[in-house]
Design brief:
With 265 residues, this protein is of the alpha/beta class. Helices cover 28% and strands 26% of the residues. The protein contains six helices and twelve strands. The strands form two sheets. A seven-stranded mixed beta sheet has the order 3-2-1-4-7-8-9, with helices on both faces. The protein is globular, with a radius of gyration of 17 Å. The two termini are 34 Å apart. The mean pLDDT is 96. The chain binds zinc ion. The site of zinc ion has 5 residues, from loops. This is Peptidase M55 D-aminopeptidase.
Length: 265
C-alpha cells in the first residue's frame, strides 16, 4: 500500500497568524514543529495500517518546512516546487492507494480560519462552478484525475465541514476552529493523537467511495485583491476579464484548470 501525504501549515493545531506560518519569522519554529508532528503522526498511522511506501509533499510556502529527520524512515519527502501543475500533489500517480491531506485550511473568501486563502494571498476568492474552491477541492480533483481516493483530511473545522459536504465518505480530523481573527484549538498533542488514530482506521476501511466525480465542465472564476493582477492574467489563453478584479476561464479538462492556476494564481 503506497500512500501520498500532502502537508500544509495553516490548518494545523493552534496556528493563528501569518508570522507563525512564515519561514525566517521568529514565531515559525513552534509551528514547524507542530506541522512535523502532525505529518509524522499521519505517517505512523499509515504504517500501522500496513503502508509499505509513504511519499510526503511539503506543500506550504517555500516547500521547505518539515523537519525531515523526524519522519519515519520509509518516508520520501518532496521539498520545494518543481513547477509541475499538480503543485501540492507533485509526484502523485496511479500507483498510489490513497491521498491524505494534513494541515489543510478553509478556502479564500470563506470564514473559519484567520489564514483562509487559496494558493496565494493575492486571491480574494477562487470559485469553481460557482462554489468556493479550497485547496482540498483542487487537490481532490487532481487525485480524481488519477483515480486515487482521498482517505482523510485534517485541518480547521470549516474545511472539514466542506470536505464532508463534498464527500461524506472522506474522513476528517478537525483540530481547531477559527472565530474571526482568532482560533480555538485542540491541545497540540491531542491533535497528533487523533490524526494517528484516524489514519490507522481510515486506511483499513474500503476507500472505493472516497473519490470525487470530476465535473464535465469547469468554470473557474478568480477574484484578485489587486485589479492590476486581473488585467495581466486575463491575457492567459482562453481567460476573460469579467470586471476590474475578476477573470474567468472555462474548460472541460481539469488538467487545463491546473495549468491555468499555475500561471494565474
Ligand atoms: Zn500553506
Amino acid at each position: 500500500m503506497k500512500i501520498f501525504i500532502s502537508a500544509d501549515i495553516e490548518g494545523i493545531a493552534g496556528i493563528s497568524h501569518w508570522d507563525e506560518a512564515s519561514l525566517h519569522k521568529p514565531d515559525f519554529s513552534i509551528f514547524q514543529e507542530q506541522m512535523t508532528a502532525e505529518v509524522t503522526a499521519a505517517c505512523e498511522g499509515a504504517l500501522e495500517a500496513g503502508a509499505t511506501e509513504i511519499w510526503v509533499k511539503d506543500g506550504h510556502g517555500t516547500g521547505r518546512n518539515l523537519l525531515a529527520s523526524r519522519l519515519p524512515p520509509p518516508t520520501r519527502l518532496i521539498r520545494g516546487w518543481s513547477g509541475h501543475p499538480y503543485q501540492m500533489l507533485q509526484e502523485l500517480d496511479e500507483t498510489f492507494s490513497a491521498v491524505v491531506m494534513i494541515g489543510y485550511h478553509a478556502a479564500a473568501g470563506a470564514a473559519g480560519n484567520p489564514l483562509s486563502h487559496a494558493l496565494t494571498k493575492g486571491l480574494a476568492e477562487l470559485r469553481i462552478n460557482g462554489r468556493h474552491a479550497s485547496e482540498f477541492l483542487l487537490n481532490a480533483y487532481t487525485a480524481a484525475l488519477l483515480k486515487v481516493p482521498v482517505a482523510l483530511v485534517s485541518g480547521d473545522q470549516a474545511l472539514c465541514d466542506d470536505v464532508v459536504a463534498v464527500n461524506p465518505s472522506i474522513q476528517t480530523v478537525p483540530v481547531k476552529a477559527g472565530v474571526g481573527d482568532s482560533t480555538v484549538s485542540l491541545h497540540p498533542g491531542e491533535a497528533v493523537r487523533r490524526i494517528r488514530e484516524q489514519i490507522a482506521h481510515a486506511l483499513r476501511t474500503d476507500l472505493t467511495s472516497c473519490g470525487l466525480d470530476l465535473p464535465e465542465h469547469f468554470r473557474v472564476e478568480l477574484r484578485y485583491k489587486e485589479h492590476t493582477d486581473a488585467y495581466r492574467n486575463a491575457f492567459y489563453p482562453g481567460a476573460k476579464l469579467k470586471d476590474a478584479c475578476i477573470i474567468v476561464f472555462e474548460t472541460p479538462d481539469y488538467f487545463e484548470v491546473l495549468r491555468f492556476l499555475l500561471f494565474t494564481a
